[in-house]
Amino acid sequence: MSVEEHTIVNRRGFLGLLGVAGAGVVGTALVPGNVGHGEAIAETRAFLAADAATATDGGVAAAEPHEHGRASAAAQTSTADDALSVDEMDAMHEASVRAFPAATAGLGGQPLPFVMDGDVKVFALSCQVVQWEHAPGAFVEAWAYNGVVPGPEIRVTEGDTVRVHVRNELGQSTAIHWHGLMLPNAMDGVPGITQAPIKPEGEFTYEFRIREGNAGTHMYHSHYNSAFQVTKGLLGSFIVEPKDAATRPAFDREYTIVLNDGPIGAYSLNGKTFPATQPLMAKLGERVLIRYMNEGLMIHPMHLHGMPMLVTAQDGYLLPQPYMCDTLNIAPGQRFETIVNATDLGVWAFHCHVLSHAEGPHGMFGMVTAFIVEP
Amino acid sequence: MSVEEHTIVNRRGFLGLLGVAGAGVVGTALVPGNVGHGEAIAETRAFLAADAATATDGGVAAAEPHEHGRASAAAQTSTADDALSVDEMDAMHEASVRAFPAATAGLGGQPLPFVMDGDVKVFALSCQVVQWEHAPGAFVEAWAYNGVVPGPEIRVTEGDTVRVHVRNELGQSTAIHWHGLMLPNAMDGVPGITQAPIKPEGEFTYEFRIREGNAGTHMYHSHYNSAFQVTKGLLGSFIVEPKDAATRPAFDREYTIVLNDGPIGAYSLNGKTFPATQPLMAKLGERVLIRYMNEGLMIHPMHLHGMPMLVTAQDGYLLPQPYMCDTLNIAPGQRFETIVNATDLGVWAFHCHVLSHAEGPHGMFGMVTAFIVEP
Amino acid sequence: MSVEEHTIVNRRGFLGLLGVAGAGVVGTALVPGNVGHGEAIAETRAFLAADAATATDGGVAAAEPHEHGRASAAAQTSTADDALSVDEMDAMHEASVRAFPAATAGLGGQPLPFVMDGDVKVFALSCQVVQWEHAPGAFVEAWAYNGVVPGPEIRVTEGDTVRVHVRNELGQSTAIHWHGLMLPNAMDGVPGITQAPIKPEGEFTYEFRIREGNAGTHMYHSHYNSAFQVTKGLLGSFIVEPKDAATRPAFDREYTIVLNDGPIGAYSLNGKTFPATQPLMAKLGERVLIRYMNEGLMIHPMHLHGMPMLVTAQDGYLLPQPYMCDTLNIAPGQRFETIVNATDLGVWAFHCHVLSHAEGPHGMFGMVTAFIVEP
Q: Which ranges constitute the DSSP H helices of chain C?
């Protein structure tokens, strides 16, 4: 089978699908805050079903007589996996992918509404203990801002004055650090150094002006008993848009990926674990801004299949010399901004390349999602 | 409360303090080798006391009636922390900060004196087993150069010829590798490859010329049974100043931070663990050179609150394009040089952002210090 | 002893050796695929023997009367190493170095032959379970392409069309992901997303054109049960040469280092653990291209003694601003290309600087090799 045949087979399934799913809808399905999760789920499932069908029906492998036979080589299987037969393992692998993107209750990282008080943008965050569904049927106790993990996204512009009312409904004291922002010391959110801890049922109001030069991808999270509270979910993205958009690389749509390796399903992207992670969708030819932030305790080198990323900013600061890569190592506390040109159609795996954070004998899990490029 | 009120409250405490502590003294208190630890301790404690008072008395939180009440939400507390009540946990968190910077016996990283033998700078290092106090009252067995962890700083200039007499008073053989220096192979310090091991009670003399082009932040450490000996404390900084200072970024004062995660208190900065770590002090407007080196076995992404760093050199080599960040990931063996502009007054937390290296239910510990900017 | 004397002593041993070993042969001994392992082993052993003799006989240490005496400080030795006497530990350290480079059965990473089918370069890979000798006498079960770890190197040129026949002789399904290559989605090798798994005794044919702009250092590896299959050995290098060599930095010879931390001896370079790792050899003045790729689950900051590296490409993409370092942190999934100028004669240690991956009380092991510069 030539490259051309492969491509034709692939396109047939791919385009055929689009006829069903309706290309018009997909385009903006996952721009945060635009559309519900449900649409994206239905659409992505259709994509994957078509893709898998392509692979099974039209792929080279299907022509092989032994393709589905149990090999005599089975006796060589390592002890570690002896409990599963080949077909059982395949079925589990397939089931995890088929379930993607799985519906779960709760969606973090959506824009946090604000009200204006004169020139001040006023936000409110409540720290709560909730039951969080990170994968279908998998609930864990999360410590969350406004009930979601990650907390809602705070998005403002250079020069804005921001006020955030924080109420603590946890069983421990807490405080919020605005990681990456330049602000008056008293607003930095470190109990014992810049403020008293916010006791249970206590409140605190943070207020600061976003300085020019501080645009980019930042975070907010607990700075009290933080190894526990942050990884439990008290974290969120704080995006500062530039006053002049022309000062930063142009893009057609954007996504933010919050990495965590805490108690919430161990390895999560935006508070969800595969297959409940959200896919990133793009139309062919679009420039997609992907923001990363690591709120966990381990490195996570994120690998995008199929297309490289241009790394344009680190910790919010524009790199004087952007560089290309396909695997971006993100350490705890770091943020990166990258631009991906959606040059290639298809469903592209996108995952942490510490493979034990992404796949086991039972299939993919944890820090896995897909970058989906449609016509 | 407006931003202006916040700032005023903060400044009142901050400036009030300075009247007490005497601003004139602080300025050079922690320039290595200039002044004793005691002055810095007294001064920093006063800073922190004032700061905390500000937060408690003047902060927004104090206006809330429930601020100090025990919340009914306590029942939601995770099992992991059930052993501590809210007030107990708060008290422990506060105590660790109040103790900072805590006095301990021994201070590593101070300049190693030398004598001239003709054109040669002659240093002496003795490898010894000592009891090392990394936090108040916390003594561990350390393997140390000249009795301190990190070993004394060796500081020379490009073009110098350096001779180092090493005497082994340990119970194991050892050898010293000059990590980052370009030198004759026989001086590289790897037993079995470039020399015989230095047996207990044995000696060895290293001698080499510092090449032009080798300026920057380097290290010396054991290269024998090294996973054990280095993390136990056989490590130190080796700074090569450029012949022409104009070839490197200008700065007003400098600090070196040696990261380690070995037996010495697990997570240490310059051989001490919080609250016994030394603060970094600066006057408003100064440019501060911070050198990092990782002598441990894990990554440590160091996060400075409040102000970004300009990363100017890696492993001693000037970066052709310095870049900005606020969280710098440092892997074992790596060194970085950064410049921080001290633009903002206050006591700024400064810690490893692998949060489990910095804070637990009992408060901050390990790889935590503060960057203190005074008027 | 002056620097000059040191240098003379060193040179005497070093040059004396070369008279024995024959400098002419060494030059190309380890260019992959040129010469067998045996020659390199004999030669390198001779180098090391001469070097060690130099250190013992002519070094400063030998002049010390207590050099070989058991120190009274022995009682201070930490419990962890009490089981070994000084001489026992020294003997074990020396033995591991003397054995280097130790002969073992099997050598991975050699060029994979291909046949032309019209314009298509056709390769074949068979996935097999083998017993793999990673260190002398240390056999482990490996999952391997064509029986070797790493799998054979696939090396092609921008613009080539590549076809790879894959046959699965394992007891689990599998699939191959071409990590770093831009290709049609159906060829990306992710079961459930882009193809069906390749069942035991099944086959699959991948075919794709290597795009212009995709030159550099890439990888191929399993993308099925991958945390297990990749670390077990289903991995290899995929090198894309540029159509125009002038577009990339010039070099005189090259090496590829595949990092792994899986079941194969825990910490391996190109499927071998020290002392069975292969040395990198160079002639004085040569420019050596060293390619790194991390197929493991942990970071590995590789430290080259004696000479810095110029980092020229990341994940195959040329850096707009190459930078210098001596310790390069490589995260799982990342690749780097570096140029080392072989400016200094000798046997230079070259190892992962997570020291616990490289040395223990019994001497060096795991991720250690040497960079050997000869006249």
A: 3-21, 23-26, 37-53, 86-98, 226-229
Cβ-in-10-Å burial (0-12, 13-18, 19+) of C119 comes to: exposed
Q: Which residue of A has its CA nearest to C206?
A: A60
Q: Are C137 and C95 in contact (CB under 8 A)?
A: no
pTM of the model: 0.85
List the one residue out of B74, B79, B134, B80 whose CA is nearest residue B107.
B134
Residue B306: its chain A contacts at CB < 8 A? Answer: 182-183, 185, 188
The rounded distance, in Å, linking the Cα atoms of A289 and A337 is 7
C59 pLDDT above the threshold of 90: no
Torsion sign, CA atoms A31, A34, A40, A43:
negative
Structure tokens belonging to residue A212: 């020019």
Report CB contact under 8 Å: C180, A349: no
pLDDT computed for residue C271 by the predictor: 97
A346 to C185: CB separation less than 8 angstroms, yes or no: yes
Find the residue in A nearest to B9 (Cα). Answer: A186
What pLDDT score was predicted for residue C37? 44
Question: What is the percent of chain A where pLDDT is above 90?
Answer: 76
Does the interface ipTM go beyond 0.85?
no
Query: How many Å apart are CA A354 and CA C295, to the nearest integer?
Result: 9
Subunits next to B (3 or more Cβ pairs <8 Å) are A, C
Contact status, residue A347 vs residue A372, Cβ threshold 8 Å: yes
Measure in Å the smallest separation between the Cα of A301 and chain C Cα atoms: 7
Q: Residue A16 in 3-state DSSP? A: helix
| C205, C224, C331 member nearest A93 (Cβ) | C224
Q: What percent of chain B has pLDDT over 70?
A: 78
For C127, the closest chain A residue by CA position comes to A73
Are B195 and C61 in contact (CB < 8 Å)? yes
Q: Predicted confidence band at C157 (pLDDT cuts at 50, 70, 90)?
A: very high
For residues B120-143, give the mean pLDDT: 97
Residues of A in contact with B10 (CB under 8 A): 184-186
Cβ atoms of B311 and B217 within 8 Å: the answer is no
Provide the sign of the torsion angle of the four alpha carbons A261, A267, A273, A278, taken in this order: positive
Judging contacts by C-beta atoms under 8 Å, the chain C residues touching residue A10 are 184-186
- Interval B24-37 mean pLDDT: 30
Q: How confident is the model at residue B266 (pLDDT cuts 50, 70, 90)?
A: confident
* Residue numbers in C near B228 (CB within 8 A): 78, 80-81, 360-361
C260, closest residue in chain A (CA to CA):
A354
Supply the DSSP string of B18-44, one letter for each residue. Answer: HHHH-HHHHTTTTSTTTS-HHHHHHHH
Q: What is the mean pLDDT of residues A344-348?
A: 98
Mean pLDDT of chain C: 83
B18 pLDDT higher than 80:
no
Q: If you average pLDDT over residues B178-202, what whole number do you get?
A: 98
Phi, psi (degrees; rounded to nearest 5) at A245:
-60, -25
Percent of chain C with pLDDT over 90: 76
Q: C285, C226, C292, C233: which is closest to C258 by C-alpha?
A: C292
Quick check: C324 pLDDT over 90? Answer: yes
SS3 content of chain A, % helix, strand, coil (to 5): 20, 40, 40
In sequence order, which residues have a C-beta less than 8 Å from that of residue B244 and are 6 or more positions away? none
CB A19: neighbour CB atoms within 10 A? Answer: 9
C182 and C211 in contact (C-beta within 8 Å)?
Answer: yes
B18-42: average pLDDT: 34
The per-residue pLDDT for B263 is: 74
- Backbone phi, psi, residue B30, to 5°: -110, 10
